[in-house]
Specification:
By secondary structure, the chain is an alpha/beta fold. The protein has helices spanning about 15-20, 20-25, 75-80, 95-115, 115-125, 150-160, 185-190, 215-220, 235-245, 285-300, and strands at about 5-10, 30-35, 45-50, 65-70, 90, 140-145, 165-170, 180, 195-200, 225, 250-255, 275. The longest helix has 19 residues, at about 95-115. It is elongated and about 70 Å long.
Length: about 325
C-alpha cells in the first residue's frame, strides 16, 4: 500500500460523523486525513464515510473511489441520486451484530409464542390464569432475507425447535432444519406457512412496501410480524388494518419511516404493537474503523474493497 495519506470526506445529513467516530478517527490519524463536506480539497478525496448523505454530495468529489457506510445497511448511499457508476459502496460486516440481532428477534418470537403480552395484562389485573401451551414445533417461523444476519437468526431459532423457513430473492442453499424459498412463487408459499414473519430484508426498489395488505393476507390468521428491516418496507395503514381486523394478532416494530416516531403516531398506543426505538442491533465503532481502514487500503491498491455491495441489487 502507498504511504501517501488518503483523503476521506465525512458525509451525513443526520449524524455528526466526526463526533460519532471520534475514537476511530483518532486511531487512523496520520494514515487518513478526514475532512468535512465542502471544506476544500474536493479533488483530493478518494474515500468517503457516509450515512444519509446530501442528495448532491457525490457531485463534489470527482475522484471518489469508494464510500463506507457506518452500518450493515447501505441503502441511503446506494439510492443517493448523485452516486456515480464506478464508485464502490462498502457495508460493515460484524459477527457480533448478527448475534445481537438474533437475541433480539428470538425474544420477540417467544413473546408471541408464550403469550407474554396476555400474561403482562393479567398481572396488571391481578389475575392468575394459565394459558394453553404450544410446543415450538407448533409455531412455524418465516424469515424474509437470508444474508449473513438472516442466516444467523434462522440457525438460532431452529436450534430452539421452531420450524424455520427462509426467503431470498434468488435460490440459496440451506442447512438441515431450515427450508428455503425464493422468487415470487416461493414468497407466497412461505407466507402461507409462517405464523411468525420476521423481516430482515435490505431496502431496495423491489422490497419497498413489501409488508403490505397482500403479504399479511397470505399469512395464517393470528400471525405475528417482527419488523427489524427498514421502516420503508412497511405500509403502516395496512398493518393497522390487519391488526384491527384480527388477521394479525400482533406486531413487534423496531424501524419506522419517520424516526424518531412522532408522539402522536398511532403505533405508540396500539394494544397489539410492541415498539422499540431502532435498537435491535448495532455495529461497534471499532468494526466501522476497521472497515474504513480496509477500504482505504483497497482504494490505494486499486482493488475492489471487501464487503462492497452489488449496486445492481442494492445490497
Amino acid at each position: 500500500m502507498s504511504s501517501e495519506i488518503l483523503h476521506c470526506v465525512l458525509l451525513s445529513k443526520t449524524v455528526d460523523l466526526r463526533k460519532h467516530l471520534a475514537s476511530e478517527i483518532a486511531k487512523l490519524d496520520g494514515r487518513i486525513n478526514f475532512i468535512d463536506h465542502l471544506t476544500g480539497n474536493e479533488h483530493d478525496v478518494t474515500l468517503a464515510v457516509a450515512w444519509y448523505p446530501p442528495a448532491d454530495a457525490f457531485d463534489h468529489y470527482p475522484n471518489l473511489k469508494a464510500v463506507c457506510s457506518i452500518a450493515a445497511g447501505a441503502d441511503s448511499i446506494v439510492m443517493n441520486p448523485s452516486l456515480r457508476d464506478g464508485i464502490d459502496v462498502v457495508r460493515v460486516v460484524e459477527p457480533a451484530q448478527a448475534e445481537m440481532m438474533s437475541g433480539f428477534v428470538i425474544w420477540h418470537v417467544l413473546w408471541h409464542h408464550r403469550q407474554f403480552a396476555t400474561y403482562l395484562a393479567n398481572q396488571r389485573e391481578h389475575l392468575w390464569k394459565r394459558l394453553p401451551a404450544r410446543t415450538a414445533q407448533e409455531v412455524p417461523v418465516g424469515i424474509l432475507g437470508y444474508g449473513a444476519i438472516g442466516a444467523r437468526v434462522a440457525a438460532d431459532i431452529a436450534k430452539l425447535g421452531y420450524p424455520v423457513k427462509v426467503w431470498s430473492r434468488s435460490e440459496k442453499p440451506t442447512p438441515p432444519g431450515i427450508t428455503g424459498f425464493h422468487g415470487a412463487g416461493g414468497l407466497a408459499a412461505m407466507l402461507g406457512q409462517s405464523e411468525v414473519l420476521i423481516n430482515l430484508l435490505p431496502l431496495t426498489s423491489e422490497t419497498r412496501g413489501l409488508l403490505n395488505a397482500d403479504t399479511f393476507g397470505k399469512m395464517p390468521r393470528g400471525g405475528y410480524l417482527i419488523q427489524v428491516g427498514r421502516g420503508e418496507h412497511l405500509v403502516e395503514a395496512d398493518l393497522l388494518a390487519a391488526l384491527d381486523s384480527g388477521h394479525l394478532s400482533g406486531a413487534s416494530l423496531d424501524v419506522f419511516v419517520g424516526e424518531p416516531l412522532k408522539p402522536e403516531h398511532a403505533f405508540w398506543s396500539h394494544p397489539k404493537i410492541m415498539l422499540t426505538p431502532h435498537d435491535a442491533c448495532d455495529v461497534s465503532r471499532p468494526a466501522v474503523g476497521q472497515t474504513i481502514w480496509a477500504t482505504a487500503q483497497s482504494v490505494q491498491a486499486g482493488e475492489r474493497p471487501k464487503d462492497a455491495v452489488d449496486r445492481g441489487r442494492g445490497y
